[in-house]
Amino acid sequence: MIVRKNMGRARSGLVLLVALGFFLAAYNLVSMVIHNKASNSGDPVIRMPGKMMQSSSGSDSKFHVALTATDAAYSQWQCRIMYYWYKKVKDLPGSDMGKFTRILHSGRADQLMDEIPSFVVDPLPEGLDRGYIVLNRPWAFVQWLEKATIEEEYILMAEPDHIFLKPLPNLASGTQPAGYPFFYIKPAENEKIIRKFYPEEKGPVTDVDPIGNSPVIIQKSLLEEIAPTWVNVSLRMKDDPETDKAFGWVLEMYAYAVASALHNVRHILRKDFMLQPPWDLEIGEKFIIHYTYGCDYNLKGELTYGKIGEWRFDKRSYLLGPPPKNLSLPPPKVPESVTCVDHLQVRLVKMVNEATANIPEWDSLNRS
């Protein structure tokens, strides 16, 4: 059993090294990652090879909006809606939003290249992500940072299922990035696992922020330092059965939090960065809607989470193609106690409907 496991790791390393032979010299990075992953020892911090780290000074606070995506229809329609609302709010008062890039880690161009500013990067070598496609996210950022020309000093790491409610200012403070605290990222409660990747000599486990990589506004120079280690920690976590089981679909989020701590980077935790329906009750002064969860209600306006409601909006209902135009609004009969929830749902659906009504070829362009 041990021999087979080691042979499997060796084969993964060999596949990776062969694939990376066709890359630029800078991508020796992942071979170093595989070495650390296979040995499960040594310094987990990985440096960007062949690139001088330069700290920006004297520049403005504009940030580049960057999101990683695939060429699947499910990803494409979310990116189109996100980009529509980015354009709507980018130049309004209070905005520090700069240019926009969809970092496409499918390894090939798609039909949205002319609609959305995009940069094509390579996915991880086949099989290395073990079906967990999110592992491509840190590797995509490493490639983009190495190869792209990025004018802004700061970067907002965003996701396709984000909608900008209003202009977003730069929430970072100098070299201290800003991130959103997720209620389900709990480093202290998972200290035994965290210590596999963030040893005690590095500092207390509370130095690991309860965040993922998105949304985060961070200096480009800092992200250049963190990203290679983020790749390393992500692959090592995925390679550890206990960690993989414990963290599941948020493994890569924990990896970013740990990688940041390994570089002594702490984030300003901004609860107003975004909201997540149906759990958040008020829009208030928040900046982004993250519609990752399904929203189900009965006709009385009561939340039926975990059970398909008589009214629902769930992005996973549209895996093979975009949602139709003019989605129905949530039920109007809402008890006073959930009025704010309904208001948020109404706002979300209206924003989706506005985008789909104004994006050309919405019904046909990205249906598979």
From TrEMBL:
UniProt domain Hydroxyproline O-arabinosyltransferase-like: residue ranges: 63-363
Membrane disposition: Single-pass membrane protein
GO MF annotation list: glycosyltransferase activity
One GO cellular component term: membrane
Record has Membrane as a keyword: yes
Domain of life according to the entry: Eukaryota
InterPro entries the UniProt entry points to: HPAT-like (IPR056508), HPAT/SRGT1-like (IPR044845)
Compartments where located: Membrane
Entry keywords, A to Z: Glycosyltransferase, Membrane, Transferase, Transmembrane, Transmembrane helix
Broad class of where this protein is predominantly found: membrane
Xref: Pfam families: HPAT (PF23452)
PANTHER family: HYDROXYPROLINE O-ARABINOSYLTRANSFERASE RDN1, PEPTIDYL SERINE ALPHA-GALACTOSYLTRANSFERASE
Protein name from the UniProt record: Hydroxyproline O-arabinosyltransferase 3-like isoform X1
Highest classification ranks of the organism: Eukaryota, Viridiplantae, Streptophyta, Embryophyta, Tracheophyta
